[in-house]
Amino acid sequence: MAALKIAGIKRAEAFSPNRVGDDTAIFNAVCDNLRNRGCEVEVFSEEQFIGSGRKPEVVIGMYRQRPTLMKLQKLEDSGSLVVNSAYGVENCSRERMTRLLLSNGIPYPESLILEIGEASREALERAGFEACWIKCADPDPQRKEEAIFCANTEEAAGALRQYGDHGISRVVINRHIEGEWIKFYGVAGSPFFHWYFPSGNSACTPAMKKNIDLRLREIGGAAARALGVTVYGGDCILTPEDCLVVVDLNDWPSFAPCRQEAAHHIADKILDSIRSKSDSE
Questions:
Q1: Of all residues in the chain, what percent carry a pLDDT higher than 90?
Q2: Residue 97 and residue 88: Cα distance in Å, rounded?
Q3: Are strands 132-136 and 170-175 parallel, antiparallel or unpaired?
Q4: What is the rounded distance in angstroms from the CA atom of residue 233 to the CA atom of residue 36?
């Protein structure tokens, strides 16, 4: 029986700031898992894939460049299986993510989406934001400005000027949420879910952790469904009132603290998706 052929696309290094090694490691671990189960995985850079003219039936990977997403969306439309969906990856851009999470009732900070200009500070003041995070609406991996924390309106005005000086015209502003930072990782439709407090939390009892786990699986999974991604990770805040608020969601993160376990479940999900697609044809 011929080996199942899969095209794997590595993430361009520009989209892995300070994470090139970790992103490469999870991608390679998933490819190795699939090869160990009899699959033939041909690996491409994003540039190689765009230039190859290939139209594979199954594509996996960590792509983010616009030309790659456009090609993969066409492949999806014609029936190819793409994990993560290129439409879902596009939805993880900050402006789309903000709109989709809020419109789908996901706990997410009150937010503004603004054109930088004379009226932007006034809009911020009308919204009553004090402490906030200002982020590029569609971040450019070549720029360093990922997110700026502002303690008050004056600092926010300075951040807006800084973005404008660097040619950034559109931003997402999230109200700052006080609480404890949680990072989480998941694979949709699988038992895998991993989370932790990056700063530690010795006061969190086993019963509290179990409760957080149940709620975080539900909220994280709902956020991933709203954006249309299968392999995902994100950041959440546990507030003093014991609420969980998603503050970011990413397509196919590095899974650095749980790489080997995650790679196994990602490979499982890919093979399950291939079987489901074959059964439906």
A1: 72
A2: 10
A3: antiparallel
A4: 25
Equal CATH topology for 5-84+259-280 and 110-175: no
pLDDT, averaged across the chain: 91
Q: How many residues does the chain have?
A: 281
- Tell me how far the alpha carbon of residue 85 is from its chain's centroid: 12
The predicted structure's pLDDT at residue 212: 95
113: which strand partners?
Answer: 172
Closest CA to 121 of 154, 78, 76: 154
Of 138, 141, 90, 148, the residue nearest 115 (C-alpha): 138
The secondary element (H helix, E strand) that includes residue 163 is helix 153-165
Check whether domain 180-251 has CATH 3.30.470.20, yes or no:
yes
- Rounded Cα gap, residues 10 and 237, in angstroms: 30
Per-residue pLDDT tens for 26-79?
999 999 999 999 999 999 999 999 998 888 999 999 999 999 999 999 999 999
pTM for the full model? 0.93
C-alpha 69/C-alpha 50 separation (Å) is 10
Return the CATH superfamily for domain 5-84+259-280. Response regulator (3.40.50.2300)
List, for residues 247-276, the tens digit of each pLDDT value. Answer: 999 999 999 999 999 999 999 999 999 999
Instruction: Tell me the CATH number for domain 110-175.
Output: 3.30.1490.20
Percent of the chain exceeding pLDDT 70 equals 95
What phi-psi label fits residue 179: left (phi over 0), alpha (psi between -120 and 50 degrees) or beta? Answer: left
With a CB cutoff of 8 Å and minimum separation 6, the contacts of 168 are 116, 136, 143, 145
Contact 245, 177 (CB under 8 A): yes
> Domain spans of the chain?
5-84+259-280, 110-175, 180-251
